[in-house]
Amino acid sequence: MSTRRSNYSAVSQHAVSRKGQASVTGYSSRIRLGNTALLVPQGPLTSTGGTLPRSSKRTYIETDDDDDDLLSMVGDRRGGSATGDEDTPQIKTRPAVMTNHLYFSDEQMAKSAQEPEVLIPIRINLDLGTYRLSDFFLWNISEQLITPEHFSQIMCADLDISPHTYAPQISQAIRTQIEEYAPVATIDLPPGIQNVVVNLSLHLAKHLFEDKFEWDLTSTQLTPESFARTIVQDLGLGGEFYPAIAHAIYEVLIRLKKEACEGHLPTDVENDAAYNAGAGWRVDQEGLGEEWAPSLEELTQEEIERREVERERNIRRLRRETAKFGTDMVDRHGGLLSSSKRRRKTSMF
Known about the structure:
Helices cover 40% and strands 14% of the residues. It is built from 9 helices and 8 strands. It has helices spanning 2-17, 27-30, 65-78, 106-113, 148-159, 163-185, 224-235, 241-262, 301-327, and strands spanning 24-25, 39-41, 94-95, 119-127, 131-140, 195-204, 207-216, 295-298. Strand 4 and strand 5 (131-140) form a beta hairpin. It is globular and about 65 Å long. The N and C termini lie far apart (82 Å).
């Protein structure tokens, strides 16, 4: 009996001394390497940030997360980089902490599920000193369980940034954009085809993606998410482009929806359709539809900064105009787009 007790004690102490699975994380350090558009270094490279040299870059396909954490820990213990390159930024690990999620009853969940989903685009841009945080996501303005304040606390914990400093800024930015977009987002357009031309232009990290296509504002069958997923699959783009394209489409559509409510959209859509049809196959003998094709190009740092300033200026103007539009809105249905001449009677081929 005493032998069994001593063996059990030895095994227990050995198990406690070892780090268990998922007990450490290097996520917050890994995203500071400059491989994503979420956190972009603004200053000189440091031991936990910056863009890795081309020869030292690693992908999730080559090694899994556990291998990355193990390599970083080995490098730290040896006093150098795990890859042998002293100039290569290291992935630092820290103890993993359980996310402070909120838990709700089945009745609360069922009641929340009955609310209609109304998604609006949200952008978060923060200066973190040596890094710039640039995040984008969709927010359901009918959400009643998760608040912007709780969301911002989780975001700060995941990114390992000060919640006391940045959580109030993030939550306030979310609430401000909800107030500005809600007046237009909650409007139900009357049934009938309402075709518009979407000119999409977005830059992700150092790449510029542009596309032009036709969209029906009243259609509920095609969503920006499914459209963006198809584009990413067809062009073989990286995973970050999927939410970026979907988010950009939402931004364009909410602006066009506002113009539709104000009656500023053109009656006819110039879509180069054959035989003067409202929609369908396009006839372009010279350009062969190049104007309507997606494109992807790499930008210089100067072009990225210039486009970022222009994009932020345009977004601020859109939010101000949308908020102003909401103060004049009295009825969600009556009087909006009631003129039959604004409703397209065409059908999609």
